[in-house]
Specification:
It comes from Lactarius akahatsu. It is a single chain. This protein has 377 residues and is mainly α. Among the domains are: 113 residues; 146 residues, no CATH class. The chain is built from 13 helices and no strands.
Length: 377
């Protein structure tokens, strides 16, 4: 038994009793903790030993937690929600526009005053039509009532005639707009080279530019000139026969331009519908793929805004199409000289066209005011 040597025990027998169960901390610090391999219950491993055997060190775990914290702090959903709240507060839906402000801006333009006078004129025409229809069935009794009725009808007819003349005067010189566009196109044609030198090809004459202009612009130009000739005739500057011919020619141009506008409207509406279906298909595919407003917020919101814009454009194209149909029915009675139901159809289609055109112009001026106020924030 004396030959057994314990760790840290001195070879001297005189110090055997003192160092029998004493551990040498110097050797433990040098060789590490020594565990009895025959023990059935090994001691618990301290946390430091787990760190040394773990594939992820403790410092890396702290970095992961820090990255998670930074990821939550810079979450794109949170940023979008914050930005959207600010944008929602400044969005056009939150800006209050008074109707009188819109009407004030609308009546500053000649087109707005024309629409307002048209509403008044055809409202009176509709009233006159129904008044005459009711008077035929239920004649007014009494001499005083008949005199009052006759005076009222005479004043309303005079007012509608005056409003028609005022509207003709408001839209005078509208031929300047198509003429300016044609002249701008003519000036853009290559006629001279660089530094004022003549180009190889001669400059085309102005008549060539007029003949090769787009049909809607030419129709607008010719119709505006014919309308002005008819207006000058109504004012007494030109003869009555010349004015009547110019009026019939202007009606024919109006009929043709309305057909052209209907074709353009149908083409544009079909393009808008195709774009709308493409956006709806993309949104449906994203929803079926599991994309939500949180997983792909920017793409979803962009598609939603685009879809709302396309739906709005499609709505106003339908309004414009209805107005063009009303105008086509109205002018057809003038071009083809139809007499059956002339007064009723002209009054109702004129009022419907005035309402639709005024609503579109009102919405345009309202959007202009909203944009102006949004930019002032």
């Amino acid at each position: 038994m004396s030959d057994i040597t314990f760790p840290g025990q001195s070879s001297s027998s005189s110090r055997h009793d003192d160092n029998l169960y004493r551990l040498s901390f110097e050797s433990a610090s040098a060789n590490g903790f020594q565990m009895n391999p025959l023990s059935a219950h090994p001691p618990r491993t301290p946390q430091t030993s787990m760190n040394t055997s773990s594939p992820m060190p403790f410092g890396s775990h702290i970095d992961v937690i820090k990255d998670d914290t930074e990821e939550h702090a810079t979450d794109p959903d949170g940023e979008l929600d914050h930005d959207d709240d600010g944008a929602h507060e400044k969005s056009p839906a939150k800006i209050q526009i008074q109707p009188q402000d819109v009407w004030r801006e609308l009546l500053k333009t000649s087109g707005g005053r024309d629409k307002a006078f048209k509403l008044i004129q055809y409202s009176m025409n509709v009233y006159l039509f129904f008044h005459r229809a009711v008077s035929r069935r239920l004649p007014v009794q009494g001499t005083q009532k008949r005199a009052f009725e006759a005076e009222l009808l005479r004043r309303l007819e005079s007012t509608t005639s005056g409003l028609s003349m005022a509207r003709k005067c408001l839209i005078m010189f509208n031929w300047l707009t198509p003429l300016t566009s044609i002249l701008a196109e003519h000036s853009a044609l290559p006629g001279y080279g660089a530094e004022g030198t003549k180009a190889s090809s001669p400059r085309k004459p102005l008549l060539h530019t007029f003949l090769h202009a787009s049909p809607p612009i030419l129709l607008e130009l010719v119709q505006s000139v014919a309308d002005d000739v008819y207006t000058w005739s109504r004012l007494g500057f030109l003869g009555k026969r010349t004015g009547e011919r110019a009026g019939r020619f202007a009606d024919c141009c109006w009929f043709a331009s309305t057909l052209v506008d209907l074709v353009e409207n149908n083409v544009e509406h079909s393009m808008i519908i195709n774009s709308q279906r493409a956006v709806e298909s993309r949104l449906y595919a994203e929803s079926m793929a599991g994309a939500t407003a949180k997983s792909a917020p920017r793409n979803t919101k962009i598609d939603d805004r685009e879809l709302k814009l396309l739906r709005r454009q499609a709505y106003w194209l339908q309004v414009q199409r209805t107005k063009l149909i009303m105008d086509l029915i109205f002018v057809s009675y003038e071009v083809f000289k139809w007499q059956r139901g002339r007064e009723a159809v002209r009054a109702l289609t004129g009022l419907a066209s005035a309402l639709l055109g005024s609503s579109k112009l009102y919405d345009r001026h309202r959007n202009s005011l909203i944009k102006a106020k949004a930019l002032s924030f």
